[in-house]
Amino acid sequence: MPTELPAGADPRDIPDATVSRLPEYLHALHTLAETGIATVSSEGLAVAAGVNSAKLRKDLSHLGSYGIRGVGYDIAVLTTQISDVLGLRQHRAVALVGVGHLGQALAGYGGFANRGFGIAALFDIAEDRVGTVLNGLPVRHLDELAEVVSAEGISIAVITTPPLAAQRVADSLVRAGVTSILNFAPCVLDVPGNVDVRKVDLAVELQILSFHEHRKSRNGKVAT
Amino acid sequence: MPTELPAGADPRDIPDATVSRLPEYLHALHTLAETGIATVSSEGLAVAAGVNSAKLRKDLSHLGSYGIRGVGYDIAVLTTQISDVLGLRQHRAVALVGVGHLGQALAGYGGFANRGFGIAALFDIAEDRVGTVLNGLPVRHLDELAEVVSAEGISIAVITTPPLAAQRVADSLVRAGVTSILNFAPCVLDVPGNVDVRKVDLAVELQILSFHEHRKSRNGKVAT
After folding, report:
1. B105: which chain A residues are within 8 Å (Cβ-Cβ)?
2. Could you tell me if A39 and A102 lie in one domain?
3. To 5 degrees, how large is the angle CA B180–CA B182–CA B185?
4. Which residue of A41, A117, A179, B111 has the smallest Cβ count within 10 Å?
5. ipTM score of the complex?
6. At residue B5, does pLDDT exceed 80?
7. Cα(A154)–Cα(B104) distance, integer angstroms
8. Residue A184 belongs to a domain with what CATH number?
9. Domain for residue B191, yes or no?
10. Which domain holds residue A131?
């Protein structure tokens, strides 16, 4: 049976926290490869990815990748291993729904294409947006969703609509066959169990920083 | 010694994973409060926040908040407790650097103000942006950063510049006294230990979804 995966690495056994760091390692590896070097120590890779090296070694051991003492990791091999595990060797077509400022920012974001993704279709319902062209892609009406998702083989969608529209959009996406959703609308989506949702709530990120600010100011004032 | 915190809750003892969920609980509480109800069960709050109820109860126990059997949590009390822990009862002024599409999306994002944050200042270096007005705020030149950060009492900044400019902007922010940074540029920032950085990398979120897509398609094909 052909397999793309390194021996011993079953993606179902990789902890979610490790999965969430693999893209960072991959990004660091790409950056290192551009400098022309062929191997990197776990310490070097850890610094480039912004994690500690013990955590990095543990994470990569889940992929069956251990490096060589005194040499480190082969950058090309490790890049292929991580790309395999993340399923990035197959280019993935992404639909984006909601072409406001944020949607336009994402549609124009250059970092997707060289990381395995392409925004393949844009959708909105506003009359003044449908029919316009953004970065070479037409903005289509949401009514065309099912047809386009099927024709383009889209399985991942990004929701950048206002929160009140997000659930209805998610329902349409699920009906059209999308099984992974990246949700920027500040609301919880109700989807079937086979659909993965990741939520990016920009105010939440600020609130977490607020906690750290608050803790710093308390530490400055409160005797411990 | 006056304290805003519920008895028994020291913010230094709250796990990071719990902190990262508190904003979700707070958002769910706000939504529930708008419906006019006064109390909520842990199950009800868990559903509204999109987590499981055992995890929610554990998280809230770190705040010294346990609810009442058969009644649940008092929404107003719990809202105040979480806001206290997150330091949100003090409105925080935020600077945003880099007024491209993403910066404009964030500057126009209505969800910040009612969640304890205000974008207080916008910065860029592009001649065609500096001097323009966005949502009532002038776009200032980055050279004015130190002066404005000090005058407005800004401690949190958002970086929405291209990656090559981000480290230089971060250095300027740190010099100006900013101690928390939300970084949207796809790069690792090198900052002093007293500065908290949270990174939002949009391609990383897509790559994590790609992993789940990949796993789903493997599960469909590979006998287990």
Report:
1. 100-102, 104-105
2. no
3. 135
4. A41
5. 0.70
6. no
7. 28
8. 3.40.50.720
9. yes
10. 92-204
Return the pLDDT at A10.
65
Give the closest-approach CA distance of B78 to chain A in angstroms.
16
Residue B27 lies in a domain: yes
Reduced to 3 states, what is the DSSP secondary structure of residue A196?
Answer: strand
Separation of alpha carbons B102 and A102, rounded Å: 6
| Chain A residue with Cα closest to B185 | A111
* Mean pLDDT score of chain B: 85
Cβ pair A210:B88 closer than 8 A: yes
A182 and B212 in contact by Cβ < 8 A? no
Q: Are A179 and B11 an interchain contact pair (Cβ–Cβ within 8 Å)? A: no
Residue B110 pairs with which residues in a beta bridge? none
If asked whether residues B76 and B24 sit together in one domain, one would say yes
Of A119-128, A176-185, B6-15, B177-186, the least confident? B6-15
Outline where B99-176 has alpha helix (H).
101-107, 145-152, 163-176
The per-residue pLDDT for range B19-31, each reduced to its tens digit, is 888 988 988 898 8
In a shared domain, residues B111 and B179? yes
Contacts of B222 (CB under 8 A, 6+ apart): A1
CATH of the domain at A34: 1.10.10.10
